[in-house]
Design brief:
The structure is a single chain. By secondary structure, this protein is an alpha/beta fold. The chain has 2 domains: about 200 residues, no CATH class; about 140 residues, no CATH class. It has 13 helices and 12 strands. The strands form 4 sheets. A 4-stranded parallel sheet has the order 5-4-8-11. β9 and β10 form a beta hairpin. α8 packs antiparallel against α9, α10 packs parallel to α12 and α11 runs antiparallel to α12. The longest helix is centred in the middle third of the chain and has 22 residues.
């Protein structure tokens, strides 16, 4: 059910949404799974582990579903596994990983005949390669719906790529009457998970090898954790405005049009029913964050942050920071350099308009 929205005094006509960098959130989202504001101690949820490297360790860990074979469990059709070093190493230190194998869960043994996707991409069937008359589609679909209900507290899911049960895309799909296969299928189980939990951040291990996609997925995981915490505690209009404010730079790094759409949704808070407002904002927010930020978008967000610090930085400091942002724009520096400089200046000159900005706090653990 959509989260229940409460208003303190009930906006009379229109909720005003601050758009400039001087926006200052007034309410913190308690227990949110994010790093604490720079220079402040953690209050549950996240505690700084290695602050100089931007890596944070969760106290109350965020839960992420993971295909069991990626965690080293021997559950594949051939009795093997596909252990992923990054997932079992780095991510296991930062998150609670929940192993899930739909094929074993529906009663298939190890080893077993592999499954093949057959038919149309919109409605494929999962058939046993050794026993084609054994159709596993209904069982995998039902287990997907059951898993989505049972693990509705997950803040992300990592699937095994290419799997007829767990693949997110480009799974081998065989024609009904023979012919050349096409890599156009989606795993039966994965399809049900995404249908039941449309806001849940999902990714597969092959795409996680790309730094920009990995960073985007993890940013979405943290953001979805914050959203769940906010809605679970009873959403207020002011709480929603503050939540949006904390993600201002992260949204600017995507695209201005999408950020503007979100602000229009907030501005209409008094004219929409509470459930509709929360559902509409949450779906659009996660849709925007799933889009990887471009170099141009990151440059825009970094320059916006620099603008907020202009009053407190001297000429040389402004010049150094501006040059590092420009060199990043040209591809001569990684983004971590201007981000590190920004954090350094924020520790020396706390700026209310940048306090709690998730864009400056959360980094993909490496």
């Amino acid at each position: 059910m959509p989260p229940r929205l409460k208003t303190r005094h009930g906006p009379s006509k229109k909720t005003k949404i601050p758009l400039k960098c001087c926006f200052r959130p007034r309410i913190a989202c308690k227990g949110a799974a994010v790093a604490p504001p720079i220079g402040q101690a953690a209050r549950g949820g996240i505690a700084p582990a290695k602050r100089d490297r931007g890596v944070y360790e969760a106290v109350e860990r965020i839960r992420i579903g993971v295909s069991s074979c990626l965690l080293g469990e021997s559950v594949r059709w051939d009795g093997g596994h596909k252990r992923d070093v990054y997932i079992t190493g780095t991510l296991a230190r930062c998150f609670e990983l929940v192993p899930i194998c739909p094929e074993v869960a529906i009663g298939l043994g190890v080893p077993r005949d592999p499954i093949r996707l057959v038919g149309r991409a919109e409605a494929p069937r999962a058939l046993s390669a050794g026993t084609p008359e054994l159709d596993l589609t209904a069982k995998l679909s039902a287990h997907g719906r059951e898993t989505a209900h049972r693990f509705s507290d997950l803040c992300g899911y990592l699937f095994k790529s290419g799997s007829p049960s767990c693949g997110l895309g480009r799974v081998k799909l065989l024609p009904e009457r023979g012919g050349r296969p096409a890599h156009a299928g989606v795993g039966i189980f994965a399809r049900e998970i995404q249908s039941a939990l449309p806001m849940l951040p999902v990714e597969d291990e092959s795409r996680m090898a790309k730094p920009e996609l990995r960073a985007t997925f993890l940013e979405c995981v943290f953001a979805y954790g914050r959203w769940r915490t906010l809605t679970a505690s009873g959403l207020t209009v002011q709480g929603l405005v503050d939540f949006h404010g904390r993600h201002r730079l992260a949204l600017l790094a995507r695209q201005m049009k999408a950020a503007g759409e979100l602000e229009r949704v907030l501005a209409a808070a008094g004219r929409r029913s509470p459930p509709r407002l929360a559902a509409q904002y949450g779906a659009l927010f996660m849709k925007v964050l799933r889009k990887p930020a471009t170099r141009r978008g990151h440059t825009h967000a970094l320059r916006n942050a620099l603008g907020c610090l202009k009053r407190v930085l001297d000429r040389e400091e402004r010049k150094e920071l501006a040059e590092s942002i420009e060199r990043y724009r040209l591809g001569n520096l990684p983004r971590v350099v201007p981000l590190t400089l920004l954090r350094h200046h924020l520790r020396r000159h706390p700026e209310p308009s940048l306090d709690g900005q998730t864009y400056l706090e959360c980094q993909a653990p490496e």
